[in-house]
Amino acid sequence: MRRKRVELFRYKAKDIKITISLYYNEAGQLIVDGFDTGKKVEEILGSENYNYMYKIDPVEVEKFHALFDVSTADKIGLLLEIRKRFGDNHAFSSLGSFMLENDIKYKAAYGDEEF
């Protein structure tokens, strides 16, 4: 079964490509999955590829449903609402700030870090 993904943000230029996706994993966790690639990334970080991710447990995802007034049964609706509110070039950091401000606990991984 293929996971339904919603694109939170995408940007492509000559020297950089950014893709951030939203989906649920097999455990029901909400995943915010980012990937940057290109010469610009290599200039800044020393590697051409950079991954980053938030992993949010189902009990914490329920807080999004309540805050955004989206039924807990409407999983895709929640992804679309997150995209509507955070789908710009500051998507990852804005969403992280929102979660901190609203006491939504999450795990984060950047680059080679693991959860």
Descriptive notes:
The chain is an alpha+beta fold and 115 residues long. It has one domain (6-110). It is 36% helix and 32% strand. It is built from four helices and five strands; from the N terminus they run βββαβαααβ. The protein has a five-stranded antiparallel β-sheet with strand order 1-2-3-4-5. β2 (16-24) and β3 form a beta hairpin. The longest helix has 12 residues, at 75-86. The mean pLDDT is 93.
What summary fits the major beta sheet? 5 strands, antiparallel
Number of strands: 5
Encode the helix/strand succession as letters.
EEEHEHHHE
Q: In DSSP terms, counting alpha (H) and pi (I) runs of 4 or more, how many helices? A: 4
Q: How many structural domains?
A: 1
The percentage of residues in β strands lies in 25-35%
Mean pLDDT: 93
Helix content: 25-40%
Structural class comes to: alpha+beta
- The first-to-last residue Cα distance is 25 Å
Placed side by side, the strands forming the largest sheet appear as: 1-2-3-4-5
General form: elongated
Blueprint (SSEs and pairs):
Elements: E1 6-13, E2 16-24, E3 30-37, H1 39-45, E4 49-56, H2 58-68, H3 75-86, H4 91-101, E5 107-110
Quick overview of this protein structure:
By secondary structure, the protein is α+β, with helices and mostly antiparallel strands. It has helices at residues 39-45, 58-68, 75-86, 91-101; strands at 6-13, 16-24, 30-37, 49-56, 107-110. It is 36% helix and 32% strand.
Index terms:
single chain, elongated, alpha+beta, 115 residues, 5 strands
